[in-house]
Amino acid sequence: MAGRKRSRSRRTGGPVARMRGWCGRRLEAMRRASASWRRPWRPTVEADVDGRRGRRLRRAITRATRDHLAGLGVTPPGHLLVAVQRTVELEGRPLASLLQVFEDAGGRRRNVLFLALTAGGRELDDGELLAMLRQQLQRVVSGELGTPVSLARAPAEAGPEETAAGPAPGEWVGPFEKERSPLEAFEGRNGAFAAAAERSDGR
To answer: Which own/partner contact pairs does 74-79 have at CB distance under 8 Å and 24+ positions apart?
Structure first.
């Protein structure tokens, strides 16, 4: 009888052992919770690409998104889904990329960014997809980023050798001032910001 009691006591470990086990489990739970709180922000990425390229592309999109937003010095959006799919369309028109912004009753915004694998009659490589991603990310955080400005000098500051036709040869002008997208009419329609498929070749 005494032997059975001692054996049962060893199995249960006694009150001290049970307390140690409980403390250990609590510390482990706290460690996991702390690790989840420290986990860096990341977008949700979906890609209709299989195999090694798909895994590489999803990692590249996540890294490029983090790096670009950090470089801009802005707070990442509360929610961002990046979906890479074969084609992207808006009202029947093929697009290279499309950003849609949804806002719920509580004012929380959800950003959905579509990137087309095929645009302008050809398949885009990973570098072109990442370039489109960065351009649309600036629309995602445009509220924090502010308004783009031109670095061209005002006419009053122009020298006598400069004409009113524009900046002197070689003078840098902000890229946002060079030309406006032909699809500006789409902006604000259903929360969509589009980039034309025929302009995805970087020209």
So the answer is: 74/141, 74/144, 74/145, 75/141, 75/144, 76/41, 76/141, 77/109, 77/111, 77/140, 77/141, 78/108, 78/109, 78/110, 79/44, 79/108, 79/109, 79/110, 79/111
Q: Decide: helix, strand or coil at residue 89.
A: strand
Q: How many residues does the structure list for the chain?
A: 203
Q: What is the pTM of this model?
A: 0.59
Give the integer Cα–Cα distance in Å for 194 and 157: 36
Q: Residue 113 and residue 136: Cα distance in Å, rounded?
A: 8
**CA dist., res. 138 & res. 69, Å (int):** 8
SS3 147: coil
6 exposure class (CB count in 10 Å sphere: 0-12, 13-18, 19+) = exposed
Give SS3 for 3.
Answer: helix
- What span, in angstroms and rounded, lies between the C-alpha atoms of 93 and 189? 14
Q: Which two tokens stand for residue 123?
A: 């398949």
Q: What is the pLDDT of residues 176-193, one digit of tens each?
A: 333 444 444 445 455 556
- Model confidence at 106, pLDDT cuts 50, 70, 90, reads confident
CA atoms within 13 A of residue 11's CA, in its CB half-sphere: 6
Pairing of β 192-196 and β 93-103: antiparallel
